[in-house]
Amino acid sequence: MDIISEIADLAQYENCAFVPTMGALHEGHLSLIREAKRFHIPVVVSIFVNPEQFAPHEDYETYPKSLDQDSRFAKSAGADVVFAPSVETMYPNSNQTITLPPAATEPQLEDACRPGHFRGVCLAVARLFDLVKPTAAIFGEKDYQQFLVIHQMVQQYKERWKNLHIIGAPNIRDDDGLAMSSRNVFLTTDQRTQALAIHQALNEPTEKKMVEMLDQHGLDVEYAVIRDETTLLEPVHGKPIRALIAAKVGNVRLIDNCVRNNSS
Ligand code: AMP
After folding, report:
1. Does 112 map to a domain?
2. Cα-to-centroid distance, 140 and ligand 1 (Å)
3. What's the pLDDT at 144?
4. Where are the alpha helices (DSSP H) in the chain?
């Protein structure tokens, strides 16, 4: 399997199934690659730690990097090529802009906690879509708001990415329930145990109880909410809902979410 970084080398992979990542691949990423394989077209995995989506105080500098191991993992899951562009390739000029969709500005979840984050995500993903020209792109529901943002962005720019389908793939967890994340490597053994409260809290019946559960285990809660699954705004009677959490264990910020039964 090839690792490429030049735009010219992408031409042969046009109309592929595409899996964008920031690397430090784990079983969650590999599940997206396996999902991409189901299309029976070439599978391109990108690895790019995107500086634009990190705030200055966040962990861009220390974000785990492991291109050799990532390539082996990607190949083992069936990827045909890894595209690992430089920052210069991704951002050849500094005046790239993007119109953010409602899911990036209204829910007051990741958008409120990480101002500028989705602008960075959308800039990078839009550039990748322009370069890779995929037919399908697979995103994990682990980052549920991001999945909605990308989905809406593609709908908003219908003419730009005419034949592109955005596919959501399930949130993959370790056996004990912790959602897989590249940042889990930063957790100490004790913090990892503490972090299990996130998965437990997702099943609490009310937002108040979710927060209580996280507090009890010493997590620093950014949000713990139950929202409408399509808009991420307040739940609407009879419409599907999702519980979403962002919390810090020590310095490690973790997010998770799951579908809930809307019995209200
Ligand atoms: P990242 O490398 O963290 O930017 O993630 C790249 C892609 O992998 C995104 O679409 C994520 O939603 C997805 N992803 C990350 N963790 C998981 C997981 N535990 N289960 C499913 N998809 C995941």
Report:
1. yes
2. 5
3. 98
4. 27-37, 67-77, 87-90, 110-113, 117-132, 144-156, 189-201, 207-216
